[in-house]
Structures are given as C-alpha cells and as structure tokens.
Amino acid sequence: MKKMKKIVMMCALLVTSLSASAQYDPGTWSMQVKLGFGASKLTNMEKIPLSESNADTQFKAASMLAVDFQYQATNWFGIQSGINFWRQGSAWENFVEDNVKYEDNKFKLTYLAVPVLAKFYVAKGLALNTGVQLGYLLNADVEMTAKAKVDDYKVTDITSINVEKDCNDFDVSIPVGISYETSSDWVFGAQYNIGLTKVNKESYEGVKDSKNGVFMFTVGWKFKL
Asked: How would you classify residue 10: left for phi > 0, otherwise alpha for psi between -120 and 50, otherwise beta?
C-alpha cells in the first residue's frame, strides 16, 4: 500500500509539472530546437494511368528539423521565426503493370524554409500559431522500385530521377497550428502547412498544378537568450 501511494504521488507530481507552463515574460527572447514527424501529400497530384486501373496517390512520411527564435511581446502575443529543414512530398500506391510490380513510388521534396509566425496565447503556455513560410527547394526526386521475375530469377530495379529542373525554386505556404509549453521547457505542437504556390513549373503526366500540404507533430526544447 505504501508503495502504491508513492507511485500515485510521483504521477501527481509529474502531471503537475507538465501542466505548469514555461511561457516566458514579456520583453524576453528565447531559442527553440525542434523535431517534427508527420505526413505530406501534394494536392491535384494525378493518378498514374495504367492499362487496367489507375494508381491512387497516397500520403508520404514527412520530417522536419528547426531552430526557431521567439520574442515574447506581451503575455498573450509572441513572434517566432527561424530556419527549418523540411522533407516532404507525396506518394502513389503499389501497382502492377506488364507483370512488373512497382513499390515505394514517391515524389520526394526537400526545402530550406523560413517561417514567420504570430503566436496568440489563449491560455498560459497554450498558443495558436499562424503566419507565412517561405521555402527554397534543395532537391526533388521521383523514386520507385520495380520487381519482376525473368527466367526464374527475381529482378529488382530501384530507380531515382532528379526532377528539380521541373519544379519551382520557391514555395510559399501558410502554417496553422497549436503549441503548448511545459514548465520543463519542452514544447509540443501540431501544425498543418497549406501550400499556396505550385510545385511544378509546367503540367506534365502525373503532376498538374500541385501544391504542398504537410501535417506535422513537433517536439522541441526552448531556453531564454
């Protein structure tokens, strides 16, 4: 019974520490290192046309690494900006064509981005975030794995095509999200980036006026400067 009481007390202390906010005082600067994991998909990404059916588009795993700086203007308002490194894109489902199975069909995009966010604190430590994010394209690849059987041999071919020249260099999106700052300086958040600019320069097979859409869960650690 005593051991159980100790466990209950420890859990209560943990919940109390997490529920307390680390929101900084007005007029202070802070820095945050942040990691994010989520999913992305391009809008208006066409299906791959096949002889018997079409391969639908799917979400692709996305990730993010960021270093952000924030100025706490008032108790309810802050401004945040920094440097973000994003891996995102889109994918197609596996399909079979001419006795060849195609797997891991992905459109991979890598951006270096600068967000400028307004943070509206609706409660101590709890903020609604929105603003604008400017991204510069670092790389763009289409990848797929083809598997077939030739003369009783299993053949696997992994293809990667760089399509950076077909994509626009800059991307503009609107981030919309929510974040919570704990007393131990951890920051948890969720964010969705609404793409405003086309990814592709011109329409071509499989991609037509596509825009980025990325959902991300984030965890970060912040400290005063």
From this structure: alpha
Pairwise CA distance, residues 211 & 194, whole Å: 8
Phi-psi region of 61 (alpha: psi -120 to 50; beta: other; left: phi over 0): beta
Nearest CA-CA partner of 192 in 169, 212, 170: 212
Going by C-alpha positions, the residue among 211, 213, 214 that lies closest to residue 197 is 211
pTM: 0.83
Let me know: does 24 contact 192? Beta carbons within 8 Å.
no
Across-strand partners of 180? 126, 188
* pLDDT tens digits in sequence order for the chain, 225 residues long: 555 455 445 544 444 444 445 678 899 999 999 999 999 999 877 666 565 567 788 899 999 999 999 999 999 999 999 999 999 999 988 888 888 888 888 999 999 999 999 999 999 999 999 999 999 999 999 999 999 888 888 888 899 999 999 899 999 999 999 999 998 899 999 999 999 999 988 765 555 678 999 999 999 999 998
> What is the token pair recorded at 197?
């600019």
Measured between alpha carbons, how far is 120 from 128 in angstroms, rounded to an integer? 5
Q: How many helices (H) and strands (E) does the chain have?
A: 1, 15
Q: Which two tokens stand for residue 131?
A: 């603003």
Q: Are 198 and 178 in contact (CB under 8 A)?
A: no
Token duo for residue 117: 């966010």
